[in-house]
Design goal:
The complex is a heterodimer of chains A (about 425) and B (about 180). Chain A has helices at about 1-15, 20-35, 45-50, 60-70, 75-85, 95-105, 110-130, 135-145, 155-165, 165-195, 210-235, 240-255, 260-295, 300-310, 315-330, 335-350, 355-370, 375-385, 390-415, 415-425. Chain A has about 425 residues and is an all-alpha fold. Chain B has helices spanning about 1-40, 45-70, 85-120, 130-160, 165-170, 175-180. Chain B is elongated and about 65 Å long. The chains are: A mainly alpha (about 425), B mainly alpha (about 180).
């Protein structure tokens, strides 16, 4: 059955059938060939119970929040403000790219939109100030990936939903590795720009008065983050409800600090519906496949398969990491996550690993998939905003950041506490 | 003609998407009020349930819009190596598979609603919502998705027959990464 799923999955995906539909087809296949009783009868009920779910409504809310912030111009102002604060570092504006991406990761679920906005605002500046286009655009692509790690994260919600793990704990677990990665990106940029100053463009120091003025622009985003995360950990709201708080907060911020128009709301809604439906087709498909796999006895088969391999828990993790790196070259990220969860997570948990910890490890690997060619959404996003130059430049520029991610993978495996200390401490 | 037809279909789904968005905003407002009320020691006592229904209905009705915006992710690793006719074959095939699968989902969704209608079932929750009220729009959303899928497939098929590969790609091609972010 494992062989059937793997071959079927790759084959159908290669035919360019939409990912969500592929998951349904595989489910139909498992039902027809491996299940002792017909499972398709449960299809309608499963689609209903998967989508009639109050946890998942956090997805459209967090997307909507991000859309409102980006489309009302808040993202642009944040970028300008952060530029005042970090451009004295070797690498200058590149750090503003990373810092803006980090801040937006902390409020929104729409990292693609963030990467696009940062790219649109930053690219003209890069040319004017003489930055190396490779490193500059690589930093935007890599920074954009932080959105799925730093809470609130849609990918963590989906992971928590599919594996029945606590979403607040996942959020807490993602905070340290997420900030660690952001710091890693900054450090690696500084090192590169110290060795080759030509890559870093002009460093600029702004007068203190201008820096303080810029600080005002950052307040709304920090406030929003505190509001979302605060209401969750104060116990006032579930992650889902906090997402609704975030939407309201974003609208208030947009009203006071940004440009609000009917057109902006229309664009935000359309963007939200598009991303949400895309995610939900994949999630519903994955739930159906999950259901058929479990009913057909995948668990037992995996157990046998593992015993047959005779891998140690550590060996299993290494194999899993390699699988994700390889698949990450070819498969879009959310799909990669959702199609592998039903197979890989039970396998890893059976070896005694913590599902929360593994969720975070998986997210780092998925982040890597976002910026590794040929299929890496953020690469295309940044290239799309550049309008000139070659795609290969963006790909080359992400290499140092991919290395930082690999270092984080190693660190997480060596020191699981990096992810687990916050959720454990606050339990 | 196919072009015009798709334009109408797109406009319809655009309107539906806006409506769904307004419902989402309303739902966020209800959740927010409930949080505030809870702090004051009272509660609606059913926002979870309402959010769930809104999510189910929003999901099914948003699918058609996303389809026409080429939003459902496809891996075009192999497909992108072909041009014109070859690409059109990939697109038509995947569109046909999608339409058939979605039709099956809609077909299997009917018994869920039919049972609620026949039994007059209420949700086992504080609000005791009659399930048919919320399952009817949910079911119709999937039916609409299936209809949109078949209509789009037909329009694209006619375009391909006429050799208008560019037009068919615009209608059922793989998702444009740049478009995805606009």
């Amino acid at each position: 059955m494992i062989t059937y799923i793997s071959i079927g999955l790759l084959g159908l995906l290669t035919l360019s059938i939409p990912v969500g539909i592929v998951l349904f087809l595989l489910g139909f296949g498992v039902d027809a060939f491996f299940s002792p009783f017909p499972l398709i009868k449960g299809l309608g009920n499963l689609v209903w119970s998967t989508s009639n779910n109050s946890t998942l409504i956090a997805i459209p809310f967090f997307v909507l929040l991000g859309e409102v912030l980006v489309r009302s111009g808040i993202a642009t102002r944040t970028y300008a403000a952060l530029d005042r604060w970090v451009s004295w570092l070797p690498g200058g504006l590149i750090h503003a790219n990373i810092a803006t991406a980090t801040m937006f990761s902390a409020t929104s679920g729409s990292s693609v939109a963030t990467a696009a906005t940062v790219a649109t605002v930053a690219m003209p500046q890069a040319e004017k100030l003489g930055y190396d286009p490779k490193l500059f655009s690589g930093a935007i692509a890599a920074g954009g990936t932080l959105g799925i790690m730093i809470p609130p994260s849609i990918n963590l919600i989906v992971y928590g939903f599919l594996t029945q793990t606590s979403i607040p704990r996942l959020f807490l677990a993602g905070l340290v590795p997420g900030l660690g990665l952001a710091l890693g990106f900054v450090v690696i940029t500084v090192i590169i720009c110290m060795i080759r100053p030509s890559l870093g463009g002009t460093r600029r120091v702004f007068p203190l008065s201008e820096m303080l003025q810029a600080l005002v622009q950052l307040i709304p985003i920090i406030l929003l983050f505190t509001m979302i995360i605060g209401t969750i950990y104060k116990g006032w709201a579930t992650p889902t409800e906090a997402a609704a708080v975030g939407v309201a907060g974003a609208i208030v911020i947009a009203l006071f600090f940004g440009e609000v128009s009917l057109r902006m709301f229309e664009q935000s809604i359309l963007g939200t519906i598009k991303i949400t439906s895309m995610i939900m087709l994949v999630v519903i498909g994955a739930s159906f496949l999950n259901f058929t796999l479990a009913s057909a006895g995948l668990g037992r088969e995996l157990q046998n398969f593992l015993t047959g391999l005779g891998l140690s828990p550590f060996g299993t993790i290494l194999v899993v990491v390699c699988i994700y790196i390889v698949l990450g070259f070819f498969i879009e990220t959310l799909s990669l996550m959702v199609v592998t969860i039903p197979i890989i997570v039970p396998l890893v948990v059976a070896q005694g690993y913590d599902p929360i910890w593994f969720g975070i490890l998986m997210i780092v690997l998925i982040e890597m998939a976002l910026i590794t060619p040929p299929v890496g959404l953020n690469l295309y996003v940044v290239q799309g905003a550049r309008k000139s130059g070659k795609m290969s430049e963006v790909m080359l520029g992400t290499i140092p950041y991919v290395l930082a991610m690999l270092a984080m993978v190693a660190a997480l495996i060596a020191f699981p506490q990096i992810a687990l200390m916050l959720p454990d401490a606050l339990q | 003609m196919e072009q015009n037809f798709l334009i109408i279909l797109r406009r319809l789904n655009h309107g539906i998407a806006i409506l769904v968005g307004i419902v989402l905003f309303a739902c966020a407002a209800i959740v927010l009020m409930d949080i505030v009320l809870r702090q004051l020691g009272s509660s609606f006592g059913g926002t979870d349930e309402i959010s769930g229904y809104v999510m189910a209905i929003a999901t099914s009705w948003g699918m058609g819009y996303t389809l026409l915006e080429l939003g459902h992710v496809r891996i075009d690793f192999l497909r992108s190596r072909f041009a014109g006719k070859g690409r059109a074959v990939f697109d038509l095939f995947s569109m046909a598979v999608l339409s058939a699968t979605v039709s099956l989902i809609a077909f299997k969704a009917w018994p869920v609603l039919a049972r609620s209608l026949a039994n007059g079932s209420n949700a086992n929750t504080p609000l005791e919502t009659p399930l048919a009220w919320v399952q009817t729009p949910w079911f119709l959303g999937w039916v609409w998705f299936a209809i949109v899928a078949w209509l789009t497939f037909t329009a694209a098929f006619l375009m391909v027959l006429k050799g208008q590969f560019g037009n068919s790609e615009a209608a059922i091609g793989a998702f444009g990464e740049e478009e995805a972010v606009q």
